[in-house]
Design a protein that fits this description.
about 475 residues; two-stranded antiparallel ribbon; globular; Alkaline Phosphatase, subunit A; disordered N terminus
Length: about 475
């Protein structure tokens, strides 16, 4: 027992509350679940939407044309280009690594002259609203660690997600909806996605993302059970809150406050979520903008439209996960399908936010966990081939929220295999997102297991050139 009558465990718990309250350098003003903190600097974005393309979209077939790759199609990948870099086990044992040119046409678009593939005609039309990060690179070469790295800043599971860090740092802008909402495209195969990718890790559980669903209750267990009405639920929560406060005073466990906040949020969501997810009030021209698939709940198009509705209700973070970009074989056919499912709705979301005056302070992000190889995985034919995982370079695009529109940053080499200049590491990307939200990534920390953790670990430099 300590001098104040607390056990060592209770003292540490109370100390943990004090440590987390200093996460933003002592700038906490109120409970994070109800009111945002004072910011490190003026934010450029109030909210973000991350259109995550799981599997690794091929930069070589979408945004990064390589005439030299066309000229050398079928030739062996030069050793001087590979430089002994590791390959996955899927192509590492190939006797030959033939260079594979993209079969798709590229053209420059808008006043910016951005290069976009013929696979993405709708994205091409908004090129002047986009910032292309062509020098993205990562440390991981396989899907699970690479996706985990983009989403949490670590290749190891268990760390808080990017939205969880933002929720922890800024709180919620709308007390009736989660700070982080997760939307998954239905009926998509591909690499599995786990709830830990939008989890809170060692942060208080109130900061975890809430997954929305396309059938039944939009959120699991949102409705009251038979025989329980809203007034009864309110009385139950009031009584439960009294018990929780007594427990909190006795034990000093910060997770008790998180449970209380989650119970209150769930009660508010019983009214707010059905309204937010009801697309029936949207006019016909909106469905024409996003595509008719937007009428089908759970499709990528419907999720993009739902994302706009959540963002205009001041949800802090919305994440869409769309699987199926892992094209080790049959890339020409498979990537056409992926682009058909995502191109129109992605562009529509940017357009819709812009015309509603929301793009200026909403950060839109499109991209996956890594790129694809400039050589063919498996046999290269005139109409079929695959591409393996490639962490050395890939492309993401961003829009709104303080980004420099109509701008391309970073270059790859003549074969699209290595960085040539202006690389942006995943930790740099995460530092950029936090900066645009008004957060210094080096100051947003959380004490855990004897050290201070942050999203970017001990790395990350904001690429200032990409901001307006």
């Amino acid at each position: 027992m300590t001098s104040k009558g607390l056990t060592r465990r209770e003292l540490l718990a109370v100390a943990g509350l004090g440590g987390s309250s200093l996460a933003l350098g002592g700038t906490r003003t109120q409970d994070a679940s109800r009111s945002p903190f004072v910011l490190h600097h003026a934010p450029r974005a109030r909210r973000i939407v991350f259109l995550f393309q799981s599997g690794g979209p091929s930069h070589l077939d979408l945004f990064d044309p390589k005439p030299e790759l066309v000229r050398r199609n079928g030739e062996e990948l030069p050793a001087s280009v590979r430089m002994g870099q590791r390959l996955t086990g899927m192509s590492g044992n190939q006797s030959s690594l033939p260079l594979a040119a993209s079969p798709f046409e590229f053209a420059q678009h808008g006043q910016s002259g951005a290069w976009v593939s013929s696979l993405l005609p709708h994205t091409a039309r908004i090129a002047d609203d986009l910032t292309f990060l062509k020098g993205m690179h990562t440390s991981a070469i396989n899907h699970d660690p690479a996706v985990t790295f983009v989403q949490t800043g670590s290749e190891l599971s268990g760390r808080p997600s990017l939205p969880a860090w933002i929720s922890y740092g800024l709180g919620s802008s709308n007390p009736d909806l989660p700070a982080s909402c997760i939307l998954l495209t239905k009926n998509k195969g591909g690499q599995p996605l786990y709830a830990r990718l939008w989890g809170s890790g060692f942060l208080p559980s109130r900061h975890q993302g809430v997954q929305f669903r396309s059938s039944g209750d939009p959120v699991l267990f949102l409705g009251n059970p038979p025989g329980v009405d809203r007034a009864t639920r309110r009385r139950m929560l009031d009584t439960l809150g009294q018990l929780h406060r007594l427990q909190s005073e006795r034990e000093g466990d910060p997770e008790i406050a998180s449970r209380m906040a989650q119970h209150e949020l769930a009660f508010a969501m019983q009214a707010s979520v059905p309204e937010a997810t009801d697309l029936s009030s949207e006019p016909e021209e909106v469905f024409e903008l996003y595509g008719q698939e937007a009428r089908d709940p759970g499709t990528y198009a419907a999720n993009c439209l739902l994302a706009r509705r959540l963002l205009e209700r001041d949800v802090r973070c919305v994440q869409l996960f769309h699987q199926g970009w892992d094209q080790h074989g049959n890339l020409p056919g498979a990537i056409r399908t992926q682009c058909k499912e995502t191109d129109q709705a992605s562009a529509a979301l940017v357009t819709d936010l812009k015309r509603r005056g929301l793009l200026e302070d909403t950060l839109v992000i499109w991209g996956g966990e890594f790129g694809r190889t400039s050589y063919s995985q498996g046999k290269l034919t005139s109409n079929n081939f695959g591409r393996d995982h490639h962490p050395r370079c890939f492309t993401m695009w961003m829009a709104g929220g303080g980004m420099r529109p109509g701008f391309s940053f970073g270059e790859t080499d003549d074969l699209g295999y290595n960085l040539a200049q202006d690389g942006v590491h995943v930790h740099d990307f995460q530092a950029l997102v936090l900066h645009l939200m008004g957060i210094d990534h080096e100051r947003l920390v959380y004490p855990y297991q004897g050290r201070e953790f942050r999203l970017t670990d001990v790395h990350g430099k904001v690429p200032w050139a990409v901001m307006a």
